Amino acid sequence: MTDSTRANGGLRRAVVVGGGVAGPTVAMFLRRLGLATTVLEARSEAAGDEGAFLGLAPNGLQVLAELGLGAEIQARGAVCQGMRFTNARGRCIGVIDHRDHAQRFGAQMVMIRRAELHRSLMTAAGERGADCRFGARLVALDERPGEVVARLESGEQLAADVLLGCDGLRSRVRALTLPDAPAPAYTGLCDLGGFARCPGAPLEPGWTVMTFGRRAFFGAFAAPGGEVWWFHNTGARETMQVADPEQRRASILALHAGDPGWIADVVRATPTLLGPWALHDIMTLPRWHAGRVCLLGDAAHATSPSAGQGASLALEDALVLARCLRDAEAPQAAFARFEQERRGRVEAVVRQARKNGDGKAPAGPVAAWFRDRMLPLFLRLGAAAQARTFAHRVEWSPRAE
Ligand SMILES: Cc1cc2nc3c(=O)[nH]c(=O)nc-3n(C[C@H](O)[C@H](O)[C@H](O)COP(=O)(O)OP(=O)(O)OC[C@H]3O[C@@H](n4cnc5c(N)ncnc54)[C@H](O)[C@@H]3O)c2cc1C
Questions:
Q1: Per the database record, which ranges form the FAD-binding domain (predicted)?
Q2: Distance of CA 136 from the midpoint of ligand 1 (Å)
């Protein structure tokens, strides 16, 4: 499908590095503009449950809706009705209700396995004519007059008019293009997770329960099919260093000793532990582009998961960058416009995510007493900011002539 408005500046070929969230999405928008687009993904096509699961917020889903993929992605995942926060004794100390999101924001929060999301987006990009390649790792790039050349690990070289770095937190494109850019910062939290069947867990289908445990934080989403999708955040980096999965499980169980007993049941019922991930973010990069190369998604502004926005921001970026390429006279002007339009929004979310993550750190008895009483107020205050984030709309409107 080609949009009636085509890319300005005579662009014909694009190379997109990364087949996660931003990569295939921007590829679909570039195909609308008629660009021959290649997506390079380092992983093999068979990569399994890498990355566990994530939540797509209404602001991200509206980008998928623009591509005609909203209903499909929602069907592949599950709507999250809301979140209940509990303390280490299992007492509910706050609720965020998502059930009116469709009416307020035009879409609901959708939880989806990461592998499922990646697969669906790459398939959709392929169906729209993008050349999506797995096992294709970018190792170097050269800028020549009028083009940029991607060099793959296999030795193959691909020339393009623009190259988009959608290769995530540890972006190779960023390292090659902006070698002085600051490294991602460790947030102080590690993340592990998994998928389990645990019929005895007191979880309501479609709801997430977030528990401020005595020594670690635990989040569990009850997927409608009866599975529990869970994650565990800890500041205890030792868990990261344990190589043996059963010892790692023992370390998670030890960190939740004394917390509601169903948490241990879920961890024990999990066939394969996923992770660990040391959570990093990038508060700000001096710039997002150089020459014919531009970064988007986590490569430009990695967000810790604690705001549930990284994937949704990557989707927004994809639409806005393609629109800027459509409307600007030259790639450099498009990239500058893109950065100008996006920087304020994404950096505010990265800061908020860091703050939310800090709130997950284990609290002493006095701090926990205050948190239990203050959380409803913090949730109310946070609700306005969250509503602004969810209500944000990026538009694929026609070019203004
Ligand atoms: C544990 C965890 C939980 C999270 N939970 C949420 C959540 O609930 N909600 C949310 O919105 N966000 C969440 N996030 C953040 C979210 O996953 C990211 O913000 C989002 O995936 C960013 O998308 P992206 O396309 O920029 O990068 P990615 O999705 O990371 O994709 C980058 C891709 O590039 C590929 N790649 C890397 N290097 C190369 C190379 N040299 N050549 C070719 N390919 C390469 C990688 O294999 C990968 O597939 C979470 C993150 C983590 C770590």
A1: 14-353
A2: 16
